[in-house]
Design a protein that fits this description.
Layout lengths: L3 H8 L16 E4 L6 E8 L2 E7 L2 E2 L2 E2 L5 E7 L2 E8 L5 E6 L8 E7 L5 E11 L2 E11 L4 E3 L8 E5 L17 E7 L2 E4 L5 H17 L4 H14 L3 H11 L9 E3 L5 E4 L3 H11 L22
Antiparallel strand pairs: 1-8, 2-3, 3-6, 4-5, 6-7, 8-9, 9-10, 10-11, 12-13, 13-14, 14-15, 16-17
């Protein structure tokens, strides 16, 4: 089965799209599989400048270890030098995420692999220095920035990676949403503040179940979590009970902290409830956890 989640990822392939950000043409450096080596390429926005060097393909192979180097400047003065690695794909951009007049530096790197991992590091100028925060490693493109409420501040739209492969294959999974806001040099969880967006994703999950057969449990797990975020747990749970695949045994194993199987849940609803408690969507009493903070699912 090819879920809508998988289809959406394919439509925004990490091999061709670095960030779904507006107006970055003059303030970004993209790296693709065929990008040749370059030295000291610069982009500037206001007082913030970044100089980037990249070791591309050489002799038909890519030296991916420490092949990306960059230096951050503020008002003409060097502040930070960093070295990292990226495999075939990368993006360095400048954008004012919090609408305070000073752009952030966003560095995206990719480790390689079928679905993982993308990592972003965001630098912001505060208190006469650059501070940084990292989101990821994460599956796929790792997230995108979008101004959901048109207030000039960008929200980071991502998803909860813990749902991938939990109850189905990757293609059969449809994880719930995570929405973060960038403020004062850090990200905070604002997922529940955007019910219209959450409802739109829940509708896409519903439509995926209507159009496909097989591996329903991977979509239903995300759907129930999405309904929890909307304050509609009972409705989502009852929907799941009527639609889940009773033949699938994916995700029924009970595992210890080392990943060893120590038992087995009797069915998918029992396994899903245990999983939602483990991931914090439900409290120990099996009720929605209103204190759930999804920031740690994205930020490292």
């Amino acid at each position: 089965m090819r879920s809508l989640f998988s289809t959406l990822l394919s439509a925004c392939s990490i091999a061709t799209v670095a960030f779904a950000l507006p107006a970055l043409a003059a303030s970004e450096i993209q790296i693709n599989y065929d990008t040749p080596s370059f030295q000291n390429r610069e982009i500037t926005n206001g007082k913030v400048k970044i100089s980037v060097s990249y070791d591309g393909q050489s002799g038909g192979s890519l030296n991916e270890e420490n092949n990306l180097r960059y230096t951050l400047y503020y008002d003409g003065q060097e502040k930070i030098r960093e070295t990292t690695s990226t495999f075939n794909i990368g993006n360095i951009s400048l954008q004012d995420l919090d609408s305070n007049g000073t752009p952030e530096v966003i560095v995206k790197v990719y480790s390689g692999g079928a679905h993982c991992c993308t990592e972003h590091k965001v630098y912001t100028w505060r208190d006469n220095n650059f501070t940084s925060v990292q989101f990821g490693p994460a599956d796929g493109n790792g997230g995108r920035f979008e101004d959901l409420n048109q207030d000039g501040r960008m929200e980071l739209i991502a998803f909860d990676n813990s749902f991938l492969y939990a109850f189905s294959s990757y293609a059969g999974s449809f994880p719930p949403s995570v929405i973060l806001s960038y403020r004062d040099g850090n990200f905070e969880d604002v997922t529940r503040q955007y019910p219209q967006y959450l409802r739109g994703i829940a509708w896409q999950m519903y439509r995926t179940l209507e159009r496909t057969e097989g591996e329903n449990n991977g979509v239903l797990a995300g759907y129930v979590a999405q309904k929890i975020l909307l304050g509609e747990f009972e409705d989502g749970w009852n929907f799941m009970l009527a639609r889940y695949d009773r033949e699938s045994d994916w995700g029924l194993d009970i595992r210890d902290s080392n990943g060893n199987s120590i038992g087995r849940h009797r069915d998918f609803p029992t396994a899903l409830k245990a999983f939602l408690i483990e991931t914090g969507y439900l409290n120990r009493n099996g009720q929605p956890n209103t204190a759930l903070n999804l920031r740690d699912r994205v930020i490292r």
